[in-house]
Amino acid sequence: SNSSLCGAYNSNVVKMLEHSLANYQSLGKENIMIYPVGKKVEEAVTKLGYLPQGSYQVMADKPSYVEAYKLAGKLMEEFVEKRIDHVELIYHHFKSMGSQVLLRENYLPIDLRQVAEEAAENVSENAPHFNNDYIVEPSVGELIAELLPKVLSQKIFTVLLDSNTSEHAARTLAMQL
């Protein structure tokens, strides 16, 4: 968030960030890169003694796909060039007006086993079985290379929308108390 008056919304994110950073202390502060979205998290990152890797305050107030695409592209480029080896997202997931869940998710590298497990969980026993033996042109590799950046950009945009919605819900609840 860029502002206050939303209860423990910002402080919960900062606490989760501190907890996450504790897992990476052995790397040293100079080797941990943080891309804070929102003024409050950016201020907390600076107070913790880390150097924010840019200012993304605009995305906290008005999530835009273009900005999400740029950030995702930057993260993917850093990952491909091996300047970073792991990317995590910390955000509030909006479930309902009364429930926003703070999540910490791996963004890169993509764990395909987890994706397969989640897909298997979503298949019911009564669902019709489909033959998934497809011929893909030009190739599976090229298709994945084309789609993966779009999927990762969409994930960042979805996280931004989720967080923004959760912030407004938290602010509404805080104002009612």
Topology summary:
Elements: H1 9-23, H2 39-47, H3 57-61, H4 65-80, E1 87-96, E2 99-108, H5 112-122, H6 140-176
Antiparallel strand pairs: 1-2
Helix pairs in contact: 4-6
Could you list some keywords that capture this structure?
single chain; two-stranded antiparallel ribbon; 53% helix; 177 residues
Commentary on this structure:
The protein has 177 residues and is mainly α. Helices cover 53% and strands 11% of the residues. The chain has six helices and two strands. It has helices at residues 9-23, 39-47, 57-61, 65-80, 112-122, 140-176, and strands at residues 87-96, 99-108. The chain has a two-stranded antiparallel ribbon with strand order 1-2. The radius of gyration is 18 Å and the shape is globular. The protein starts with 8 loop residues before the first helix and ends with a helix.
Give helix and strand order, one letter per element, not per position.
HHHHEEHH
Biggest sheet: strands, sense, closure?
2 strands, antiparallel
- What does the overall shape look like? globular
| Tally of DSSP β-strands | 2
* Low-confidence blocks of residues: none
Mean pLDDT, all residues: 90
Report the sheet-strand fraction. Answer: 5-15%
SS-derived structural category: mainly alpha
User: Which sequence of strands runs across the widest sheet?
Assistant: 1-2
Distance between the termini: 20 Å
Relative helix content: 40-55%
The rounded Rg comes to: 18 Å
What's the tally of helices?
6
